[in-house]
Amino acid sequence: MTKADATPVLELSGIGKEFGAIRALHDVDMQVFPGEVVGLMGDNGAGKSTLVKIIAGNFRPTHGEIRFAGSAVHFNRPVDARAVGIEVVYQDLALSDNLTAAANVFLGRELKRRFGPLALLDHKAMAARALELFGELRSETRPDDLVKQMSGGQRQAVAIARTRLSNARLVMMDEPTAAISVRQVEQVLGLIHRLKEQGVAVMLISHRMPDVFAVCDRVVVMRRGEKRADKPIHQTSPEEVTALITGAKEAA
Amino acid sequence: MAMPMESPITFTNVGKIRWWQRGIFASQTGYVLLALAVLLVIMHFASPYFFTQGNMQNVAKNFSFIAIATLGVTFVIITGGIDLSVGSMMCFSAMITSMVMTELSAPGSPLVHMAADGKTVLANVPGLILLVSLLAGLGVALVAGLVNGFCIAVLGLSPFVTTLGMLSIVRGLGYVVSNGRGSFPGGPDADYFYALTSGDVLGVPVPFIYLVILALAMAVVLHHTSFGRHVFALGGNEKAAELTGIPVVRVKIEVYVICALAAGLQGIIISGWLGSAPANMATSYELNVIAAAVIGGANLAGGIGGPLGAIVGCVLLEVIRNGLVLAQVSSYWQQTLVGVIIILAVLVDRIRSRMT
Fold this sequence. Notes:
The structure holds two protein chains of two kinds.
Chain A: E1 10-19, E2 22-32, E3 37-41, H1 48-55, E4 63-68, E5 71-73, H2 78-84, E6 86-89, H3 101-105, E7 112-115, E8 118-121, H4 123-136, H5 152-165, E9 170-174, H6 182-197, E10 201-205, H7 209-215, E11 218-223, E12 226-232, H8 238-246
Parallel strand pairs in A: 3-10, 3-11, 6-9, 9-10
Antiparallel strand pairs in A: 1-2, 1-4, 4-5, 7-8, 11-12
Helix pairs in contact in A: 5-6
Chain B: H1 28-46, H2 53-78, H3 86-105, H4 128-154, H5 159-178, H6 190-198, E1 200-201, E2 204-205, H7 206-224, H8 226-236, H9 238-243, H10 248-274, H11 285-295, H12 307-326, H13 333-355
Antiparallel strand pairs in B: 1-2
Helix pairs in contact in B: 1-12, 2-7, 2-10, 2-11, 2-12, 3-4, 3-5, 3-10, 4-5, 4-10, 6-10, 7-8, 8-10, 11-12, 11-13, 12-13
């Protein structure tokens, strides 16, 4: 996808954030296009998570503007970001172990059927829709199984299925491959490809260089609160990215 | 209903969980129920009096006296909280109910307006005094529940400490309002009150009927409404619940209010059976109630529990008590045995979850 022929789904211009005297982010410009996978890299304290939290609505930026699908947006709470179509898959996945896969997918937005004054859960519809979503993600996950009994890859699928439910247009994944096995990493990267096929923009926040190079179209490197590089993946190399992260190379 | 999928997913290496490994069969509630059944059979052979109608009525009535409060505390335990104030709450609600009832009935009391015939205005409508007194009793429970919920959900105090404080506050208030003397339901509506709390319908004690209705309602709420879903989610992973947009504060306040109301109702029913609400009524009942919930399978770490478990726990405790009496074992053994059973039930659950 070339940058000229589409409106970016997310456009940040001049984003800055200060916590008291600490400058966490300074003048970050960034664009993410539909169906694009962008890797966001940087060392601890580089400002990655602050940036993610601003996009997700946890923090308000001190400076700058966020445009989503062409129009300016202001998020006061995470719910506002979710309402326009931004979903976050958290590092610890934010799942309730004691509930089933389907219950987790629909947590906080359960499907209901009315019986007179009562609104009761529509278990059948939720299980059917969850199975459909797992099918789209090609994950072998049964909607009625408890999350407690699932593998890391299946949990990841449940967390990602949540984002598909609302037809999110931008999915941010925070370290999805940090603590899982090699085979499961393959599954997760597969899931990211599925999202991409469906025109969803994905932002992958990761420390793992091989994963970023396996799946991303573009890589953004942060250092000391500033964007130091923003390159198509085939024009860079793991060595260059490492140098940018550590500061051996100032910018590219 | 057509299957929505012509199976685009094939489960090549994800096995199906067998029916006996899921649901009630794989829960503590399941095998405590089994243990209860075994115990009932043993009791049948140990004592010819056990399965008589009179004794069964007795057992049903006695376990109903803690089971309604156990339903309430189970809600709190599922969210991962605890409510230690239920015993005091029972007493205070019962006391307020009977004091209001007596006050509204008494001619010449400074608070009530007299009708032309010398009776109080409320007394001229049958049942109205009773209704107002019940509302007053449940009203104080509601307030205490709201305070518990506010301190825990909004101020972020620990449930253990908050409700330990409430235990003392409410018990103290009970002594203050009654001057330590306790109170008696009185006045023209007292007969209705006794009929509604300790009567029976076709030989079934009314507290047992209330219990069954409330337990069914609780089952529907827990498993078929989004509130119930959120209660479980909160106990499973509170942070996740918050991130997914569940109104965590509201759900928490609601469970403490439900718990306090259940305790209040329970106290009012007990006072009907006792014929009075003494100031030391239901002292340390919170321990029986929590013990029953835990034996029945509610997990103090949160996320697991239900009405069936609450009732099974209460029945088990009562059958043991009743059985020891019938078997002419010194009743002092009761508490010891209850303690052993609490630990055994949790231990067996631990061993089971290690094995699977």
